[in-house]
């Protein structure tokens, strides 16, 4: 089998649609030469590179699948109350597997989306039963934060610099440690509140706003990574990795907004 680095590289031979290598003819007439010069340049899609359309289509498809599965899980929450917990566990495992894979796997990314849809449907039903209307508010807030983050990135008002990336990494590690501490205190019965002693009242609101800010900053970093991938000529299959990254951040953002709104309305 040929080395894919060479066989797929335009430097060592342009691949034709049939899979063969394009070889220059020994002779060419003036009319053919004129048509060649007049032909439009090959697009990134024709050269097998990732495009913004690839990322948008795959992300949109995964989001549609997520919503459909979540709706089904919501409908089954009373019949199979444990189903959303299984979805959370499977989603976590598949998320880690996809995150550490060198090459994106469309099948594993799709299965991750299905598992997360099962989880989100069940937990959203729980929130809606306790705080009527909170799910719709969280969905609208997620869309608003996503649109705002995209606007800030596209307008250049927020630039992804090495300093910005380091700050975000440190902040996210700090938030993770804080969340683990809050979970540990809740497990051992320290304090009260539906979301743990450190996520209740005004402290919970402040922490929730910080978490939403971190998720929004993560979206901006995701947008920058996608831009660099497209401009750098990343392979088209990497659109799956880009879509997976956006899905992870959007799901995290939605869950944080869901919890923040519940705290504001009284946990």
Automatic annotation (TrEMBL):
Pfam families: BaxI_1 (PF12811). The chain crosses the membrane at residues 55-76, 82-100, 107-127, 133-153, 165-190, 202-226, 238-255. The keyword Membrane applies. Keywords: Membrane, Transmembrane, Transmembrane helix. PANTHER family: CONSERVED TRANSMEMBRANE PROTEIN-RELATED. This is Integral membrane protein. It comes from Cellulomonas gilvus (strain ATCC 13127 / NRRL B-14078) (Cellvibrio gilvus).
């Amino acid at each position: 089998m040929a080395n894919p680095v060479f066989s797929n590289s335009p430097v060592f031979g342009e691949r034709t649609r049939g899979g063969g290598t394009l070889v220059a003819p020994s002779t060419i007439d003036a009319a053919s030469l004129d048509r060649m010069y007049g032909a439009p340049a090959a697009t990134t899609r024709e050269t097998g590179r990732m495009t913004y359309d690839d990322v948008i289509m795959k992300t949109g498809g995964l989001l549609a699948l997520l919503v459909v599965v979540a709706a089904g899980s919501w409908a089954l929450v009373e019949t199979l109350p444990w189903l959303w917990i299984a979805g959370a566990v499977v989603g976590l495992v598949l998320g880690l597997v996809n995150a550490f894979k060198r090459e994106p796997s469309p099948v594993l990314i799709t299965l991750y989306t299905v598992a997360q849809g099962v989880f989100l449907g069940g937990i959203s039903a729980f929130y809606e039963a306790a705080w009527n209307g909170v799910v719709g508010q969280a969905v609208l807030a997620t869309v608003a934060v996503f649109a705002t983050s995209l606007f800030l990135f596209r307008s250049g008002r927020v630039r992804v610099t090495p300093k910005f990336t380091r700050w975000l990494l440190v902040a996210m590690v700090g938030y993770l440690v804080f969340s683990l501490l809050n979970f540990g205190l809740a497990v051992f019965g320290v304090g009260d509140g539906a979301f743990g002693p450190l996520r209740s009242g005004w402290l919970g609101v402040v922490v929730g706003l910080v978490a939403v800010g971190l998720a929004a900053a993560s979206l901006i970093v995701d947008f920058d990574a996608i831009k660099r991938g497209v401009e750098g000529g990343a392979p088209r299959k990497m659109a799956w990795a880009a879509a997976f990254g956006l899905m992870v951040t959007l799901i995290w953002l939605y869950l944080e907004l869901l919890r923040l709104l519940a705290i504001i309305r009284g946990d």
